[in-house]
Amino acid sequence: MRARRQTREPTIALINIVFLMLVFFMVAGTLAAPTETPVSLVRTAELEGLAPPDVLVIHADGEMQYGRDTVSDLEAFYEGLPNAARSQIRLMPDRAAPAHELIGVAGQLRSLGADRVLIVTEQALP
C-alpha cells in the first residue's frame, strides 16, 4: 500500500494577498485630521429645490420652463439664447416626466446646434 502524499496549502500566497490588500487600503483610504475647532455644518433638509436660472425645466406634464418664462417653442427658445449659452444647455426633468419627452427635447436641442445637452439630476446620498 502506498502512503498518500499530503499537499500543503499555499499559505505564502494567501499571506501575500492579505498583505497587498492591507497596503492597498492604507494607500487608498485617506484619513483627515480633525479640525482644531468644532464646526457646525449647514443643514439643507429644509431648503426648497429651486432650479438654477440657466436650466430648462421639463415638468411632469411636459410643460417646459426657463427661469420664470414658459417655453412652448424650442427653436425660438434656442434662438433667443445668447451665443455663449447655446453650446451647452442644461435640462432638469421632473422625476415623473416621460423619458421620451426628455429624449425628444435633448435631440431637438442637439439638432438646433447645441454641442452638449446636460441633464441635471439629484445625487443619491448614502
UniProtKB/TrEMBL annotation:
Segments traversing the membrane: 12-33
Keyword Cell membrane: yes
Topological category with respect to the lipid bilayer: Single-pass membrane protein; Single-pass type II membrane protein
Pfam families per record: ExbD
Cell compartments where the protein resides: Cell membrane
Keywords: Cell membrane, Membrane, Protein transport, Transmembrane, Transmembrane helix, Transport
Main location: membrane
Top-level taxon of the source organism: Bacteria
Family affiliation: Belongs to the ExbD/TolR family.
Name recorded for this polypeptide: Biopolymer transporter ExbD
